[in-house]
Protein: 2Fe-2S iron-sulfur cluster-binding protein
Amino acid sequence: PLIKFITVNGETREVNAESGSNLMQVALDNGIDEILGECGGSCSCATCHCYIGDDWLSKTGKPDDIEQEMLECALEPAVNSRLSCQVNISDELDGMVVHLPAAQY
Ligand code: FES
Structure:
């Protein structure tokens, strides 16, 4: 599936993601510098924070309790915040818009 990352400056990067991967890995593999992923995807650092485009929230689902708690450590969390390592890529997400934060901390 195609994923569109949009920076705070409005720059768009479209990348091809592999189903079965997670959004943090996709960002790292494609040199999206705004996503750090310091804990390697174990939901314990909150440096893979991103905002899911409103139209895609129903498809990505909601963060579980552990992710929700970690999100509170993120810089400027919002209702559409997710930890990208916890978003699984599936074909259903083709065309998904992901807004990148200005900074992770
Ligand atoms: Fe650490 Fe996602 S990579 S919480």
Notes: Strands lie at 2-6, 12-16, 49-52, 81-83, 96-99. The helical segments are 23-29, 57-60, 65-71.
